[in-house]
Amino acid sequence: MLEDVEQYFEVNPRAFWFSSKLNKNIAKSVHFKDRERFDLAKVQKGKPIVSERYIIKLVNELLESVGIKPVEEKRAIINPNEVDYDKLKEQHHLSDERDIVWLKFTKSRHVGVVAASNDIGFDMPQDKSDYNVQIKVYNKYKKCYEDKWKYTTSAILVHSIGEEWDESFVLIFPLEGIGKTCKYNRHQIEIAIGNYLLKNNVPIIDYYSHNYG
To answer: What's residue 37's pLDDT?
Structure first.
């Protein structure tokens, strides 16, 4: 069990900037003139990679400390083409199929992003001119169309450092225990996992992503 595990659930204040016009904190972006997340991606790429086995060990340490069932190494490493959210929900007794945390990697084996939900994908812009392209996307939960950036922030950051996604595997951690033995929700656990990995010198290209809901 980790001591003082609560510290890892704290959002990094540097991941936001304060808008006096809106009177609230805004997530730092990869769009327009904000360059901090690009700069951080370069720094993270320059750090040595860490084995998937060690990353799984760290994530399980964090999960066990908050009442989530750990995931065996052989079950955590999954071919993305074989990910079945309904099956994961049933096997791990989840109340919501979005109650999973997953990690994608670059071909250099750096962690590209730590994320939660049922939306694993490998989008990738072809050119810098693609970074600010927007599209209409239907939100099945809100039942309406919304303007969205065509490419995810993590994809843009990976492309910006000359990298590509490794589409051969992902790490998946179903959060079995949420609402029962664990008092935290999936986003809070996403934050804690990202922070704990960074604390243990695991480089993450999309350095701030896990701080955002």
So the answer is: 98
Spatial neighbors of 105 by CB under 8 A, at least 6 apart, are 52, 111, 112, 165, 166, 169, 170
Which residues are CB-contacts of 207 (< 8 A; sequence separation ≥ 6)? 37, 40, 41, 44, 198
Q: How far is residue 143's CA from residue 99's CA, in Å, rounded to a whole number?
A: 21
pTM: 0.94
Integer Cα distance of 148 and 170 in angstroms: 24
What mean pLDDT comes out for the span 152-164?
Answer: 98
Q: What is the pLDDT of residue 176?
A: 97
Residue 39, H or E segment: helix 36-45
- 165: nearest Cα among 105, 211, 120: 105
pLDDT for the residue numbered 141: 83
What is the Cα–Cα distance from 200 to 97, expressed in whole angstroms? 29
